[in-house]
Amino acid sequence: MPTITAIKKQRQNRKRVNIHLDGRFSFDLALNQTDLLRVGHQLSQEDITELQIKDEVEKAFERAVKYLSYRPRTKTEVRRRLEKLKFHHNVIASVIDRLLQNKMVDDVAFAAFWVENRTTFRPRGRRALLAELRNKGVEQEIIDAALAGVDEAAAAEDAAKRRVPRLAHLPELEFRHKLWGFLRRRGFEHDVIVMVVDELLRDRRITTA
């Protein structure tokens, strides 16, 4: 069996090492995968294959962690990202399981985060939130629970009031049309839009009277 003759840290990436067998470079590994390796140890082909599979999982895990560092993600988003990076489906499954076990991915928490973030910064109706969460791979049961507390009327009023300053100079008919279209694109229901637009038009008339 081949014998390890050198374990050398890479110059450009100090977190990885090059493994030399019988005096020649053979493969590289993450540094944290080499704790049990020593110069003089012999490795079978099965040993080498197992080390390389574990290393591939570690590479994929590091890419997933980096992807998660920007904002929370669903497990489907992480899976899609790793598929795009061409990792094997068995490797991806191992990474997803590890992330779930460490609570680094949690679709229930993600759905709550997403709804709260939208409500705070860019209010949307249930229809739009439903579509967004479905697109991110969240299960329907989780979506239903996350949307249960959404006050669509309050969200529509908030969104509309943020938009009004941009439309204040418009004639009433155009004001109504633009505001209606804006709320419709944000996914609010027809009845809610009617109520909010009519209320803001009344306020506008009182202000300009």
Helices and strands in order:
Blueprint: E1 4-9, E2 16-21, E3 24-30, H1 45-68, H2 75-84, H3 89-101, H4 107-121, H5 126-135, H6 140-147, H7 152-167, H8 172-185, H9 190-208
Antiparallel strand pairs: 1-2, 2-3
Helix pairs in contact: 1-3, 2-3, 4-6, 5-6, 7-8, 7-9, 8-9
- The overall strand count is 3
Uncertain regions spanning at least 5 consecutive residues? none
* Biggest pleated sheet: 3 strands, antiparallel
Q: What class do helices, strands and sheet pairing give? A: mainly alpha
The amount of beta strand, in percent, is 5-15%
**What is the element string, with H for helices and E for strands?**
EEEHHHHHHHHH
Q: What is the subunit arrangement here?
A: single chain
Mean pLDDT value: 94
* Shape verdict: elongated
The termini sit apart by 93 Å
State Rg. 27 Å
Share of helical residues: 55-70%
Tally of helical segments: 9
Sequence of strands across the biggest β-sheet: 1-2-3
Q: Could you characterize the architecture of this molecule?
A:
The chain is mainly alpha-helical and 209 residues long. 62% of the residues lie in helices and 9% in strands. It has 9 helices and 3 strands, in the order βββααααααααα. A 3-stranded antiparallel sheet has the order 1-2-3. Helix 4 (107-121) crosses helix 6 (140-147), helix 5 packs antiparallel against helix 6 and helix 7 packs across helix 8. The radius of gyration is 27 Å and the shape is elongated. The N and C termini lie far apart (93 Å).
